[in-house]
Amino acid sequence: MKQPELFTKKEVFQNEEIETLYRQARVPVDPEEGLDLSKLEGIAATAHGFCAKFNQRTYVNEDGILCEQDVPVVLRDGTKIYVDIYRPEKETNIPCIVSWSYYGKRPGDGMSEWQVMGVPPGTISTMSKFESPDPGYWCRHGYAIANVDPRGTGHSEGDINMFGTQDAKDGYDFIEWVATQHWCNGRVGMGGNSCVAMTQFRIAAQQPPHLACIAPWEATTDIYRESIYEGGIPALTFNEFIVASLTGPNKIDDQVAMGRKYPLMNAYWEDKIPDFKKIKVPTYACASYSHFHLRGSFNAFRKIRSTRKWMRAHREQEWPDMYNPNNIEDLKRFFDRYLRNINNGWEMTPRYRIEVMDAFDCDYQTNRPEKEFPLARTQYKKLYLDAKNKTMQYTPVKDHSKVSYDANEGEVTFDMQFDEDTEITGYMKLCLYVEADGHDDMDLFVNIQKTDENGNWLPTYILGEPHPGTWGKMRVSHRELDEKLSTDFEPVQSHKKEEKLSKGEIVPVQIAIVPSSKIWHKGQKIRIQIAGRYIREGWFEPLSWETDNKGNHIIHTGGEYESFLQIPVIPPKYQAGDYIYR
Length: 582
Hints:
One of its GO terms (molecular function) is dipeptidyl-peptidase activity. This protein has helices at residues 135-138, 165-178, 195-204, 223-228, 237-245, 255-261, 267-270, 294-303, 318-322, 325-339; strands spanning 6-13, 16-24, 57-60, 65-74, 80-88, 94-100, 144-149, 184-193, 211-217, 251-253, 283-288, 309-314, 352-359, 362-370, 379-386, 391-393, 401-406, 411-417, 422-437, 443-451, 461-462, 465-466, 470-475, 507-520, 525-531, 552-557, 564-570, 574-576, 579-581.
């Protein structure tokens, strides 16, 4: 595949000058003329990228919603960006909900033609920005919606800066601008999922005075650790899809090229992590146990300093969850409270509401109220691996044994049967002693699964497809942990250096498993699946990893090599005889 031409800049991050790489963004195309895919190569030819014609106008649609289109906003450095504002025609003194992302602000822009999977046609109005609050609903309930093209996106001036401090400062400037508009009551909120959620944390950390609340539903918050190099394994294909999709008049911060140039953590990547301690506004967050935003959603929520924060965790994919009518009404109560100052009892909403998954598309419990996460009543237990018979047990394994599998094509599983109903909710971690036979590195892909008593897999479903399980990943040369960020329940890799393996060397690794919640019924088994590749077929998102595996992987257990899975077991809240209440 032909690589895009790169342009260099000297930029300062955390007082350190770094040479950064940009590529030309996709040139805006009039949707009436179409996009000539024959001129595009590689993944760019499959990406979606139209940009509506620049057309400054004000009109009222048949539903009485006023649209001010391509309104210019001047940022602090003189850069001009453009926004479409939807608001009820005859109302003033209303709050504004901001959608800030790089995918285009009108139907036809950016990725708006990409199918919103799991959401029936007609659910979302044609005024909606991708992954964003729908003006067709919110304007009818006394809100304005601002669909923004940030710096460099669409017809906005400048270069696209994805998720960095520059983008966050621009968001601050826009919020302060929109709060002073004649129709606004001075209260501004932010809402949306995925990219539209990721930008909320970064902008909120700038503490714009008129930002009253945020609703980030599903958000990667550490681009390096959770996306570009999850576990230390390069995952650039999906990010190439995103970068290749974005349209604008100038250049785009090329995170893919930067991932190749800077494969270890540095100030550039750290600049894309929000300063969580500065986020103090009311926050309603969501997390899906089945989506790659999971780790970021929970970590951000745990770390922000707001005293008024709520989390809802669920099994569903992000899009059908966001546009579920019950969830929209729930979000309206949150926005009514903090953007319209309506005393509607929102504060009585449980701080955490979790789904406890069971199997297939069935949940054991839905929106179970909890006060904190991880749960205070958690009992951490260790399941010790035994390579001799590929099982696990609660007590340490006395004798050393080992098991190997082909590094590229093979896999190994370890099972243990529960003799009573067991709920696992929270963070797991897998501690292994590993050896590379025939190479100096290992890429480990881990899934935690549930089976019936006969070992038949009982998956959970997302968009009707079986999800491979609660996951963790690690490149063994990136095994060094960050002592400040790590906890006993969640190891966090530093990614500051590489430590290659020598022949015959056996090393311990701690692999973080993303948070989850699931019930195992008596007789069912918990399974660890370990492989040198990601095991999932036919999924619509272009997820892939550039693995570095050769020869065989060897896992050592027992004796001096205490490999184990630490699980967060949740005892019943109440128990009276045979009656159990969870």
